[in-house]
Design a protein that fits this description.
The structure holds 2 protein chains of 2 kinds. Chain A is mainly alpha-helical. Chain A contains 7 helices and no strands. Chain B has a domain of about 55 residues. Classes of the chains: A mainly alpha, B mainly alpha.
């Protein structure tokens, strides 16, 4: 089947890109690998019939979040990582805790068995049409509040980053 | 479901083929006789000094933030656009309200000179 093949193909790309992200010495290469990873993930969401998340993955993650990542890299003035940089004990400990937590979570998720009709409703609820209806019919007020929150962050960005001319 | 996205796949494939083909064709077809002078910085140009990865002005950060905010606005337009006909006038009014509130922000940025580049 084509979609099964696509799923595995994209999985391989996603994993390879993820490995590239954490092993690249140059932070900009890391960020670019992450972009590839995001695109592969978007494709994976499509093969899993989650259109909305796939589109959001491209618009928000591959677009906006990556811009932020690149900005952090550039603002922090990172050079290439030197080969002899060894993580401290604290960093290693935190990495083990975070990794362990992730593995635990994933095993828990994989153990979940959905009944067939529930599976169907999950698929239905992920549809863009459904989300649009909810957003503009049942959750109108939160939807409008979002615009106010965005407005607030817009004002915040200007306040923080805009240089005021001396009067 | 996935079949609807097949054109996207074709587009991606074509984009990849064209990008690779043009770069390779230029390499194969074009004569390449590099000399030391050809590789040097152009006449009266400055030799590159230091790393290009310098610290960036916070001005760029502001542009990025504004991009992200309006990017997120688009995210909410997408499900609305897909269901536009079924949702009707009421949803259209909601969307207009949403856009007006953000447009006030746009005017604010404009007035504050957020789009000016000093």
């Amino acid at each position: 089947m084509l979609s099964t093949f696509l799923f595995w193909f994209l999985s391989v790309i996603a994993i390879a890109a993820a490995i590239g992200t954490i092993t690249a010495r140059n932070p900009v290469f890391s960020a670019l690998s992450l972009v590839l990873n995001f695109f592969a993930l978007a494709g994976l969401y499509l093969t899993l019939q989650a259109e909305f998340i796939a589109v959001i993955q491209v618009i928000v993650y591959a677009g906006a979040i990556m811009v932020l990542f690149l900005f952090v890299i550039m603002l922090l003035n990172l050079g290439s990582d030197s080969k002899d940089a060894i993580a401290s004990k604290l960093q290693m400990g935190l990495a083990i805790i975070a990794g362990g937590g992730f593995v635990l979570m994933m095993t828990r998720i994989f153990m979940i068995q959905l009944e067939p009709n529930k599976k169907q409703s999950v698929l239905m609820n992920g549809k863009v049409e459904k989300i649009g209806e909810w957003l503009l019919k049942d959750y109108v007020f939160p939807f409008e509040i979002i615009s106010v929150i965005l407005l607030a962050s817009l004002v915040g960005a200007i306040l923080i980053a805009k240089k005021y001319k001396a009067h | 479901m996935l079949g609807a996205y097949f054109p996207v796949l074709i587009l991606l494939f074509l984009a990849l083929v064209i990008a690779v083909a043009f770069v390779q064709l230029a390499k194969w077809l074009g004569p390449s006789r590099p000399t030391r002078i050809k590789y040097s910085a152009y006449e009266s140009g400055m030799d590159p000094v230091g790393s290009a990865r310098d610290r960036f002005s916070v001005k760029f950060y502001m542009v990025a933030m504004l991009f992200i905010l309006f990017d997120i606005e688009v995210v909410f337009m997408y499900p609305w656009a897909v269901q536009y006909k079924q949702l009707g006038v009421y949803a259209f009014a909601e969307m207009v309200t949403f856009i007006i509130i953000l447009f006030i922000g746009y005017i604010y940025v404009f007035k504050k000179g957020g789009f000016e580049w000093e």
